[in-house]
Amino acid sequence: MSTNRIESLIEKVQVAFDQHPAEIEAGLNTNEADLLQLRKSCRLLAGAEVLLDHSYYTLVIEASFVAIERVIEFKLLESGVEPRDLPGTHPGVYTEAARRGLFSEYVAENLKDLWRNHRAKTYYQDGLAAKERAVLVFELAMETHAFVVNLSSKKFECLC
User: Fold this and answer.
1) From first to last of its 160 residues, what are the pLDDT tens digits of the chain?
2) Angstrom distance (rounded) from CA 85 to CA 159
3) How many angstroms separate the CA atoms of 151 and 78, rounded?
4) DSSP 8-state assignment for residue 104
5) Does the N-terminal or the C-terminal CB of the chain have fewer CB atoms within 10 Å?
6) CA 36 to CA 76: how far, in whole Å?
7) Would you say 37 and 77 are in contact if contact means Cβ atoms under 8 Å apart?
8) What is the pTM of this model?
């Protein structure tokens, strides 16, 4: 282990991200910004389910919240929001979802509170990840994903 090795790996990673990828994850090769967000949400949920089976609760909580945000962004993009106009903050995604009628203000505020008070605390280890918490957040993410996808004319594009 050395900083030389880290520096070398940083350079390799930078090159990898600068080059056109040769092997793209199945299902994510699309030019449609909304479908990319939808399918990222699908993948995050699939990954969270695997992680839940392995008791990686911190990662399940993190992936579940990100999956919720990606599916909301999918719906915002599908409804005509330009990618550059997506909210730039986690709570902003929920606020925009309520503003556009995707959720009630009550639901949006509670999602923001969950993110701010529990996701962030779990991420920064102020709160501890636990099985019950991970299971319930994952269930919330699955339900939110299904709800949003069912509102879409592109629900057939869901990879779940």
Assistant:
1) 788 999 999 999 999 999 988 888 888 888 999 999 999 999 999 999 999 999 999 999 999 999 999 999 999 999 999 999 999 888 899 999 999 999 999 999 999 999 888 877 776 666 778 899 999 999 999 999 999 999 999 999 999 9
2) 25
3) 11
4) -
5) N
6) 12
7) yes
8) 0.90
